[in-house]
Design goal:
FAD/NAD(P)-binding domain, about 500 residues, 18 helices, Polyamine Oxidase, Chain A, domain 2, 3 domains, alpha/beta, 18 strands, 7-stranded mixed beta sheet, about 20% strand, single chain
């Protein structure tokens, strides 16, 4: 039986970054991934010469000075990939507003003050409150104190973190802003978080808002899988192992108190001092767990928690660049209402005539993703898993084509004639999300980022089983590439400390 310092279940973003960090620190790591490729939701795929990002629209933290960029620089990965700076964040459309967000908080504020002059002073007060939160959050995240002590001192040293952790984004904004349409535009970023501002944690809203309005970012030439494959190559050089098409079917423990090993679908058993699971928490803590007491404990805990919404996506390979059709910017966000509760409910109710649209032109930023003279688009909206479950094979096929065509027709309002230039069309439904990632109900952000499940209320990365650590969207801090990166970093630190403690224990004996 082979033994490793750490076993990582799943080669999604959090799993890969945690495994890479541990491997770079000299730990012997085994990564087991069910799929034949890395990345989880963030992988890329090819069709007839077109390369599509499966889910990533825009990743904050990759520009100079960004948290992910600094990590890549620390380990010299930045020298082996090419970054493509993004000029704009998005073109954002509402019934009466149409503007460009360009990663600049000051430009965003200037536009809002021009549109809502009566709210100028209120906006100044709001953004001063934002800056105060960010200042305290930076002090919190850079603190050298143990996590338990850092959290215990929050009410005294970081009161804005506590305040943001117990209110919704809408409650936060409403303390300063009165105009309803202005509130809606300021909270437009909810579309990257999967809940309307009335239910979305103010804490996570503020974290993601900063990522897109305070600092430019980049794409990676050739797609993000280029980075993931590079990380795997480097890990192999360091002596770690990454195995694809390998499914973990059981996590074994010593009486449910400490991890022991994993057993794969090929009945191979591998032992480790620590296990990081990038799989969903239901599989990790219930379906794979060998101890009934642990299972029951987590069944009761997880049963009432809300999963995030799923998505419907259409990937189009075009015979001409999308820019030729009017896609002037690389990303286009379309809203039919100034009420985000309505915008969210359109997706919950599968109202494809009114739901939000996210249209991304990756090839405009990186022409290497498509054949010469061609273009591509990804059209995305949120969707409800329950409306797809139970359809017969024929009903499912027919329905997904109907929905895709309806969304394409809506996009043609902005890109006239789009349909006649389509060469490749791939469609992903909530069932697709579930099938490829094993994420229950096709949830794309793990647990929903509502107030009761975010920030200090998030499912912790430490588990009831010593040495078993969670990483990814279901645990702290939450979904999105940046959130999963942070989760992976913390998981690696927890696993490293676990390995060190066990090594000291063995030496003392």
């Amino acid at each position: 039986m082979k033994e490793y310092d750490c076993i990582v279940i799943g080669a999604g973003i959090a799993g890969l970054f945690s495994a890479f960090k541990l491997s770079s620190l000299g730990e012997k790591v085994l990564v087991l991934e069910k799929q034949p490729i890395p990345g989880g939701y963030a992988t890329t795929f090819a069709r007839n010469g077109f390369i599509f990002e499966s889910s990533l629209h825009c990743v904050d933290g990759l520009g100079l000075g960004g948290e992910i960029r600094e990590f890549l620089e620390e380990y010299n990965l930045d020298k082996k990939i090419e970054f493509i700076p993004l000029k704009d964040f998005a073109r954002i459309i509402y019934p009466e507003h149409d503007f460009i967000a360009n990663f600049s908080k000051d430009d965003f504020i200037l536009y809002l003050k021009q549109q809502f002059p009566a709210e100028k002073e209120n906006m100044d007060r709001l953004f001063r409150a934002f800056d105060k939160f960010y200042k305290q959050f930076d002090r919190f995240s850079k603190s050298k104190l143990p996590n338990w002590l850092n959290f215990a001192l929050c009410p005294l040293i970081y009161p804005t973190i506590i305040t943001a952790s117990y209110q919704s984004a809408e409650q936060l904004i409403s303390r300063y802003i009165k105009d309803g349409k202005l509130k809606v535009i300021i909270t437009d970023i909810w579309r990257f978080l999967g809940l309307p501002p009335s239910r979305l944690s103010a804490f996570y809203f503020l974290i993601v808002f900063r990522g897109y309005y305070y600092q430019p970012t980049c794409n990676i030439k050739g797609g993000f899988t280029k980075l993931f494959n590079l990380m795997i190559e480097e890990m192999k050089k360091q002596g770690s192992i990454v195995r694809f098409n390998s499914t973990v079917k059981k996590i074994t423990t010593k009486n449910g108190k400490r991890i022991k090993s994993v057993i794969t679908d090929k009945n191979e058993e591998f032992r480790a001092k620590a296990i990081i699971s990038n799989a969903n928490c239901f599989d990790t803590l219930i379906n794979l767990m060998d101890n009934e007491a642990v299972k029951k404990k987590y069944e009761s805990k997880l049963e009432g928690m809300e999963k995030s919404i799923s998505a419907f996506q259409v990937y189009l390979g075009l015979s001409v660049p999308a820019k030729n059709l009017g896609m002037i910017h690389s990303r286009l966000s379309v809203n039919t209402s100034y009420n985000h509760d309505d915008n969210f409910n359109y997706s919950v109710q599968s109202d494809y005539d009114n739901c939000i649209l996210e249209i991304t032109d990756h090839a405009q930023v990186d022409p290497s993703l498509v054949p010469d003279g061609r273009g591509s688009l990804m059209i995305m909206t949120y969707d409800n898993y329950s409306h797809w479950k139970g359809l017969s094979k024929e009903e499912y096929k027919k329905h997904k084509l109907e929905v895709a065509d309806k969304l394409i027709q809506r996009v043609e309002k902005f890109l006239p004639g789009l349909a006649k230039y389509i060469e490749v069309k791939e469609i992903a439904t909530p069932l697709t999300m579930e099938r490829y990632t094993l994420s229950p109900e096709g949830s794309i952000y793990g647990f929903a980022q509502n107030v009761a499940q975010a920030s200090i209320n998030r499912l912790p990365q430490r588990t009831a089983v010593k040495g078993l650590i969670l990483a990814g969207a279901w645990t702290f801090p939450g979904g999105g590439m940046h959130g999963c990166f942070v989760s992976g970093m913390e998981a690696a630190d927890l696993a490293s400390r676990c390995c060190c403690r066990l090594l000291k224990l063995f030496r003392s004996q």
